[in-house]
Amino acid sequence: MPSVFAWFHRATLAISLASGMAMSGPVLASSADDAVARVVSFGGSCPNCDLAGRRLVGARFIGANFPGALLAGSDLRGAAFYGSNFNGANLSHSDVRGAAMDGARFMLANFADATMDGVEGHGLNLMNADLSRASLNSAELAGANLTRVHAANASFANADLTAATMVEGMFVDADFQNATLTATSLQGADLSHARNLTQHQVSEACSDSRTRLPPRLTPRLCGEK
Question: How many helices (H) and strands (E) in the chain?
C-alpha cells in the first residue's frame, strides 16, 4: 500500500501538471527517531484548488495564486503564505497555528471555527472575511486589514492589533482580553457585546460616531488626543 507521502506527492504533482503550478521537490530532514519531515512548496496558479483535509504542516505557498481554494479542515500549522492570493478561500475548521501570513490576501475567505493562534499577519488582508468562532490568540496582526470582517465569538486574546483596520467589523461576543489596540481603527465597528474590552484599549484606538461599544466604555474619536 503506498505511503501517505507518496500519495500526496502524486496528488500535488497532478495538480501541478493540471494547473501549471511550479512546485519544488520535498525537502528532507532527519529527526532523532528517524522519522522524515518534509516541506512541500506551492507556487503558480490553482484557482478553486481542492486541498481540504490535507496534512500540510510547514507548507510554503510562495507567490501562489489560489483564489477560492478549498482548505477546510486542513492542518496548516507553521505554513507560510508569502505574497500569495487566497481571496475567497475556504479554511473553515483549519489549523493554521503559527502560520506566516505577512502581506497575504485572504479577502472574503472563510476562517469560521479555524485555529489561528500565533499567526504572524503583519499587513494581512482579511477584508470581508468570516472569522466566526475563530481563535486568534496571541496573533501578530499589526497593520492588518479586518474591514467588515464577521468575527462573532472570535478570540483575540493577547493579540497585537496595533494600527490594524477594523472598520465596520462585526465583533459580537468577541474576546479582546489583553489585546493591543494602539492606533487601531474602529470606525463603524460593532463591539457593543465584545468581551474583556477595557477603557484603556478603547482610549488607545480610534473610533467615530458609528462605533458601538459596551455601555461602560467611552470612545476616543479619531483626531482626539
Answer: 2, 5
Query: What's the rounded Cα separation, in Å, for the pair 68 and 73?
Result: 15
CA nearest neighbour of 170 among 192, 185, 155: 192
- Quick one: DSSP state of residue 24? P
Q: Is there a contact between 182 and 201 (Cβ–Cβ < 8 Å)?
A: no
163 Cβ neighbours under 8 A, 6+ residues apart: 142, 143, 182, 183, 184, 185
Alpha-carbon distance values, 154 to 24, 114, 137, 159, 179 (Å): 36, 10, 9, 12, 13
β partners of residue 120: 100, 140
- pLDDT, tens only, 19-47: 333 333 222 222 233 233 456 888 899 99
What Cα–Cα distance (Å) separates residue 63 from each residue in 21, 60, 72, 79, 125?
A: 11, 10, 21, 14, 15
d(CA 106, CA 96): 13
204: left (phi over 0), alpha (psi -120 to 50) or beta: alpha
Taking a C-beta distance cutoff of 8 angstroms, is the pair 176, 155 a contact?
A: no
> Does the pTM exceed 0.85?
no
More confident residue, 9 or 223: 223
Summarize pLDDT for 115-163 with one digit per residue, the tens. Answer: 999 999 999 999 999 999 999 999 999 999 999 999 999 999 999 999 9
